[in-house]
Every structure is written in C-alpha cells, then in structure tokens.
Amino acid sequence: MSPVTKETILFVDDEESILDIARTYFQSRGYKVLTAGNGKEAVEVIWNNRIDCCFTDINMPEMDGMELAEYVRKHDNTVPVVVMTGYPSLDNTIQTLKNGVVDFLIKPINLRQMELSVERVLRERRLFIENIMLSKEVEGKARIEKLNRELQEKNDELNVVNRIMTDFAALRESADVLKQLVDLTIAYVHADIGCFYLVNESSHQVVPIAYATAEGESPLLDNSGDDPSDLFPLSGDPKIKELIFEAVKDDQPLLVSTGNGACLPEQVTSFMLTPLKIRSKLLGVLSSFICNGKRRFGERDLYYLSFMANKAASAMESLALYENIYNNLLATLYAFVKAIEARDPYTKQHSNRVTRISVALAKAMDCTAEEQDILNVAGLLHDIGKIGIRDEILLKPGRLSKDEFSIIQQHPVIGADIMDNLGLWHREKMIVRYHHERFDGTGYPDRLKGQDIPLLARILSVADVYDAIASDRAYRKRMDEARILEIMYGGAGTQFDPDIIGIFRKLYESGELAKITAETE
Ligand SMILES: [Fe+2]
Questions:
Q1: CA of 322 to the centre of ligand 1 (A)
Q2: DSSP string, 442-479
Q3: Which residues of the chain have pLDDT under 70?
Q4: Ligand 1: distance of its center to the CA of 339 in Å?
Q5: Residue 460: its pLDDT value, please?
Q6: Rounded CA gap, 273 and 375, in Å?
Q7: Distance of CA 435 from the midpoint of ligand 1 (Å)
Q8: What's the gap in Å between 506 CA and the centre of ligand 1?
Q9: 414: CA distance to ligand 1 center in Å?
C-alpha cells in the first residue's frame, strides 16, 4: 500500500549516489523528496518549494552545509536542518549548532538511522509549529477579548450618548434644560453633586443656578436654609471659582482630582467641568463633584460631561428658536382673533375672558400646568374659524336661518384646520374643534358625547357659553343673573359636564368669575 504523501525533505549532497539512495528510500516511505548537489542549488530549491526539513552534507563546492544551515534558519526557523558528515569535529559541531542544526548523522549513512532522524525532527517541528499556532491563538483570543471589551465599552458609551440625546429631545422648554442637565450628571457620570453655574466673565461672577445631588446626604450640603447659596456652599469657594475661570479661559473641559497636585476644597476628591456655549457665547459651566469618595472621574466621564453640555446647548438653541417661532405664530393668530372680534364690538375681549375663565376652572379642577397652558392657547384661538364666515351672517342681529346656522357651525372645523395646517398644537386643535360639542351628544361638529369630548374642550365650552350670555351682544343685552344661572346650572348633564358645572358654581359664588369679567372689560 502506497502511503499518503507526507512532508517534503530536501537532501543536499555533492555525492549523487547518496542522493539517489535517499530519494528512492524516502519516496517509498511516502515523503516528497527534493535534492540539490550543493548549498547554492539548495537555496534555489528552497526558494521555489516549501520544505519541511533539510538533510545536508557539510563539505560541498560553491556553498557548504554550514552556510546553507544559516540560510535556512534565516529563511524559516521552523525548518530543521540535519547535518550528514563523514568527519565530525568539535569545531564543526559547535558551528553547526550555532546555525541551528538539530541533528548529526555520521556517514556512511544508515538508512534506518536516517529515517528515525527524519521522523524525530519532523515530529518536533510539528510540535513546534503547533506551539506557535497555539500561542498565536492565545494571543488572538486575548486580542479578540480586548476588542470585545472595547466594543462593549463603545456600545455602553453609545447607549449613554443616545439616552442623553433622547432626554434632551423630550424637553419642551429651555428652562427645563439646565435642570435636566444637572440631573444627568448624577445619572451618567455618577456625580455626588452636579451644578450649573452661570458665568459672567466681565464682572468675574459665578452663580450656581441649578444643581442636583445623588441620593443620600452629601457632606457639602447644608439644609438649614432655603437660600440656594446656603444649600450649596461651594458657590463661594475661591478654589472652585478659580478652576471655573481657568476652564473658561482655555475654553476646554477640565478634570482635577486629589492626589495629582490639584487644589480642591477639603471635601472634594474629584471635580470636572465644561463650558457651555450658545452660538459661541459663554452661558456658564456644567460641573460635577465627587465628595469624600474613593472614586475619581475619568476621561470618559469628562467626555460625557462635554457631550451633555453640547447637547444641552443645541437643545436650548433649538427650543429658543421654536419658542420664538411659536410665540410669533401665536401672536399672529391672535391678531386674527382680534380682527374677528373687532368686526363685532360686542365680542371684544370675548376670547380673552373665555381663556381666563377656562384656566380658572382648570386650576380649580387640579389640571396640570401643561393643561392650563393648552387652555391658554386654545382659549385665545377657539373662534379663529370665524375668520371664514361672512359679516352678514356673523354679525346678523336676530335669529339665523337654518342655512346660516349651518355655516356658523363650520367655525370649529375651520379653526381646527387652520391649526392643523400649521402642524402645531395638536391638543389645542382638538379643543378648538370640540368646543361646541354638548355633553348629551347633540352638539357640533361631531356630536361627541360625555367623556368622549376632551376634558379641556368641556371646560372651554362652559366658559364660552357663560361669557356669551353674561355679556352684551349685537342682538341682545346681557342676560339677567337669574337667567344666566338657570342656563348654566340647568345645562348640567345636557349641555355641560355636571362636574365642571359644580366647579363653575363654586367660582361663581366666590365672586371669582365676576372678578375675571371686570378685569377683562
Ligand atoms: Fe365658538
């Protein structure tokens, strides 16, 4: 049975007969055999072939075995070289060992001895290579682990960055940004205290305007007073002030910890800060403190801090822009409302009064500040849809015909459409649309019933009707008090939400409604 081709052996000898014997013998053993007559030829063979071991004579013309051994070692130090020599001397032996020769065979060659040598050196080579592979694998594994760790860290970092961005995107008012910012220093850089200082470079002043503390007592806090400067004694610390102005001057984030020669207040072990600029104008600095802890802030914390400050700056910029656009738009729309009211002197200030009464009702019903804000806008704009209704219908004294009334009935939808086109005020828009719905489901435009009508629209409807009947109109005088109350109280459960009428009654009886009306005349 012919054995499977094993490794490649190169035999180098200037005696052709030795090469012939070796070739015949080792080929029959399944090895691939290459031969060369001297060192120079051998180098050429090695250039053109991959070999697994080399058996060489020492004394040869052109290039001897020792030079060849040195060449092989430099070329591929995993290839073992075995020297075959007839005259082994101590000098020869030492020199060949220096050149990395792994074995000696004494001529005349005993083929069996040679085969054992081939097997041994190839086995050792395999082990050697396996070891190299193994250590490379270990090295590779370590590298992969390091990469994984780095990847994980990057991933964590991205998550934090992403959360910071989402946190800021959720804010609706620039006033909230600074508070959010200091809260984030607690959440993401695990500060004991986060503080935002307003910085005035020209007057060299530093004022802490927002701060947050981690759970638990902070040694820096003194809760004895209500004044924020009492609560936050670091505001007056000259060392902190100095560091703040250093960061501002360099326009760079700054990180200092005890132990690296930093000059910090006694209780502070690590402190970092970053300037916050809006349109390249300095607003202040965001800072974080670790107090009496073993932990110190690191470069990554500083990176997060700067990132937060940058995001806060852009959030404040876009909110300012948005608030500006929003306020301008509201002013423009309100100018329309004024124009509508101006067409009918009797409805002068109607939207204003409706807004104030609605907000008073909402407040008495414990509606949130946001809901009251919504009513502020919706109240002012609730009749803006009347802009599309002709004067002869809008201002007509006396009863309206059925057709005329159906035109009037379009104004909530027209108003909601105007707001819809602007893409703003979704909740306000719904109130405008539904302010003529009735609790019993007989109102317009959608005949919504009961709780299906948004709460704020139900509130606005009470305020709207009250103001309409309690003020003079083109076609009639203000109703008398008894009649007004009969309509309002009597409408509980039919026209109005009975709970809101209950609140309305309280406000009416306390004189608050009369006060609002008098103030808005
Ligand atoms: Fe209306």
A1: 28
A2: --SSS---GGGS-HHHHHHHHHHHHHHHHS-BTTBPPP
A3: 1-5, 87-90, 92, 98-99, 172-175, 215-236, 260-262, 345-348, 422-424, 473-476, 521
A4: 15
A5: 97
A6: 41
A7: 7
A8: 24
A9: 11
